[in-house]
Amino acid sequence: MTTLKNRFAAGIGALALSAGAALAVPATASAAVKCDGTNSSGTCVETTNVISKIDVLDQVPLINDSPYAATMSCSFSGTVSRSLTVSATVSAEVKGKIPFAAEATAGVSASTEVSATASDSASAAGTVRLKPGQSVTCQRIATVLKTDVRSYNYSGTGIFDEKRFTATVPSTIGARIV
């Protein structure tokens, strides 16, 4: 039997997820390193502490003001995108390696940029049947990976040009109804 306390706790859990709470990604490794070069010299990017987060890009309310049940669809305008951002000035070479290392650490897809058209997002959200007076919200969301990054060059004499910074790496864009 479901008690009021259980329903309230379930509602709070759903609210936390729909509000875009950060979730730890089950890592395939505690850190991942992407290196290019030879045994004697090259450039590496290491990612650690990867956390998956959902960002709400835009939202549209659906409200059934009629006295009849209605089937409604989400409708978005325009194309949205998310790009890789970093908290330090780094080379294009380093930026290009970050998604590969984050993907290896998190075990989910990552890219330097992701985008979705309005029709892609509407299709992803689907339709919903609302009773009279009911309302829901359609949200277009981006899943991003927030990570700590260490980039460095190496040679036979050791490590040099080491930088530590954070990065936000886009993973996917989708839609949901809450």
Q: How does this model look, in words?
A:
This protein has 178 residues and is α+β, with helices and mostly antiparallel strands. The chain has one domain. 21% of the residues lie in helices and 51% in strands. The chain is built from three helices and ten strands. The protein has helices at residues 4-18, 92-106, 118-125, and strands at residues 23-24, 31-37, 42-63, 70-73, 80-83, 85-86, 113-116, 127-130, 135-155, 158-177. The strands form three sheets. Strands 1, 2, 3, 6, 9 and 10 form a six-stranded antiparallel β-sheet that branches. Strand 9 and strand 10 form a beta hairpin. The two termini are 25 Å apart.
| Rg on CA atoms, Å | 21 Å
Helix content: 10-25%
Q: How much beta, percentage-wise?
A: over 45%
Low-confidence segments, given as residue ranges, are: 1-29
N→C terminal distance? 25 Å
Structural class call reads alpha+beta
Helical segment count: 3
Number of domains: 1
- Give me the strand/helix succession: HEEEEEEHEHEEE
Mean residue pLDDT:
82
Strand element count: 10
- Quick one: overall form? rod-shaped
Main sheet record:
6 strands, antiparallel
Summarize the structure.
Keywords: Signal. This is DUF4333 domain-containing protein. With 178 residues, this protein is of the alpha+beta class.
Outline the secondary-structure elements.
Layout lengths: L3 H15 L4 E2 L6 E7 L4 E22 L6 E4 L6 E4 L1 E2 L5 H15 L6 E4 L1 H8 L1 E4 L4 E21 L2 E20 L1
Antiparallel strand pairs: 1-3, 2-3, 3-9, 4-8, 5-7, 6-10, 9-10
